[in-house]
Design brief:
The chain is α+β, with helices and mostly antiparallel strands and about 270 residues long. It folds into 2 domains: about 120 residues, 2,3-Dihydroxybiphenyl 1,2-Dioxygenase, domain 1; about 110 residues, 2,3-Dihydroxybiphenyl 1,2-Dioxygenase, domain 1, CATH 3.10.180.10. It is built from 5 helices and 17 strands. A hairpin with a 5-residue loop joins strand 16 and strand 17.
Length: about 270
Amino acid sequence: MLNRRDALMMIGAASFSRNLLGAAQASELPLRTPGLEHLGLTVPDPKAAADFYGRIFNPQLFREKDPPARFYVTVGTAYLAFGSPGNSGNTTPRVDHFCALVQDYNAQSMTKALEAAGVTVVGRGMIGDPDGIRLQLLNVPGGLAGTIVPGGRISVEQPAMYGTGLDHITLLVSDLERSTTYYRKFFGQETSRTKTPARVWFKVANTRLALEAAPAGQQPRIDHFCFNVAGFDRQKATGKLRELGAEVVPSNDEQLLRFRDPNGIVVELNAG
């Protein structure tokens, strides 16, 4: 039988342990991140899409060692991953997810922290926001996984330009304030807002995340992504992109070069 003093000590110890666990979970958020790293694209022909981006950024492709076929193109410290729709039934080309690296990432403790914060975990390291847009978390230093092998060099030519990494990713969301509150959990307080267009910016280490309200009639999605390019020559880049089959389109930021790839996915290029 426990006396009253022993019982109180046990209750106190249990409460202390719960507080420690809660503090440990809370410390996972906001993320301790060195930045956004890669994007996954779902397209009808992953190899053709990788060939297109390979001629722009790096003609040495990479692929998964085992099926299903998945191809990768590195862009400095970032990369693009190309997969097929499979049996999902959604054959529309799209940006499937984006990724943030996390310092000392632990999947179990992160899952507990996310669940405590009311965040939906939809898969291994994959989180769905209020609109179903998926964010993947990976441990530092990131990079291509161990299951990926060289996929062959597609050209002896130099790449059209030298990308150094991601500049920003822009999401179109159904409710700008709701999504702003949601992404504060991961990236802290937003760094700026603009009125035209209505846009919220988060600084994610040396990268950025932008949120915009989806125009009427359009679905929330990862709208576009932007790479920094060393020694950026706008005129030369425009000519090369058109030569490769891209459609150069107007940008609401005159400093950026915007284009649509052969699958209609929007990409921007920035000097940096």
